[in-house]
Write a structure and sequence with these properties.
Elements: E1 2-11, E2 25-26, E3 29-30, H1 31-38, E4 42-49, E5 60-62, H2 70-80, E6 85-90, H3 98-105, E7 114-119, E8 122-123, E9 127-131, H4 135-143, H5 149-154, E10 158-162, H6 176-185
Helix pairs in contact: 2-4
C-alpha cells in the first residue's frame, strides 16, 4: 500500500483533443480506468477537474479556479489532502503503470518536497509526488501568475528518478493523433 493520495487531473475543456481525454477508449477501457488502475495501491484516489464525471463513483474535487493549468490542479489537491505525500497525475498518460508509481514512491526521502520522474532530461511534472508543505509556495506562485509546474519543482527540494528506459509510459495524449500512436504501441 502506498501511504499517499492519488489525485487524477481530468482537466476541463480538452480543446486540442476535441473531447474529454478521460473518456477516450483504448481497447475496451477508458483512459481514466487505465489511470485508476495504475493508482490502485494508493490509500485514496480522487479526481480533480472542472466537471464531475457522473459515470464514476471515485471522489471528486471541483477545480473552481478560472485559470486552467496543472498547477491549479495541484493547488486544489494540496488544499484538500490529508496526506503528506500526494501523487498528481494527468489523465493524458494512459500507459502509466502501478510499477512506476511504486518505484517513485520508494525514492522518497526526509526533507524532499517533490519526487519526480525524469525522461530524456525532461521533468514529468504531471506524474509526480508533491509534499503537502508545498501548498503555500503553490498558492503564492498562482497569485503571482507564475503557473509553470517545472518552475515550482525547481524552486523546491526535489528528487529526480530516471525513467528514460520506460519512455512509453510517459507518452502524453494531447490530440487524437497521439491516441492513435498510443494504441499502436499496444499492438
Amino acid at each position: 500500500m502506498i501511504e499517499a493520495a492519488a489525485y487524477i487531473l481530468i482537466g476541463g475543456q480538452s480543446r486540442r483533443f476535441g473531447s474529454p481525454k478521460w473518456k477516450a477508449r483504448i481497447g475496451n477501457e477508458t483512459v481514466l480506468n487505465r489511470i485508476l488502475y495504475s493508482c490502485k495501491e494508493f490509500e485514496t484516489q480522487q479526481l480533480v477537474g472542472k466537471y464531475r464525471p457522473s459515470e464514476y463513483k471515485v471522489p471528486f474535487i471541483q477545480d473552481r479556479h478560472k485559470i486552467q493549468a496543472p498547477i491549479i490542479g495541484l493547488h486544489t489537491a494540496l488544499q484538500q489532502s490529508k496526506h503528506d505525500w500526494n501523487l498528481i497525475i494527468s489523465c493524458d498518460l494512459p500507459l502509466m503503470t502501478n510499477i512506476i508509481m511504486e518505484r517513485l514512491w520508494g525514492k522518497r526521502k526526509t526533507g524532499s518536497d517533490v519526487i519526480i520522474p525524469i525522461v530524456n532530461d525532461m521533468l514529468q511534472t504531471t506524474c509526480a509526488f508533491y509534499h503537502r508543505k508545498l501548498l503555500d509556495l503553490c498558492k503564492a506562485r498562482i497569485q503571482n501568475n507564475m503557473l509553470s509546474l517545472n518552475d515550482l519543482v525547481r524552486a523546491s527540494t526535489y528528487i529526480e528518478v530516471d525513467f528514460s528506459d520506460q519512455t512509453d509510459a510517459f507518452l502524453n495524449m494531447n490530440t487524437q493523433e497521439d491516441l492513435v500512436s498510443i494504441k499502436k504501441k499496444l499492438l
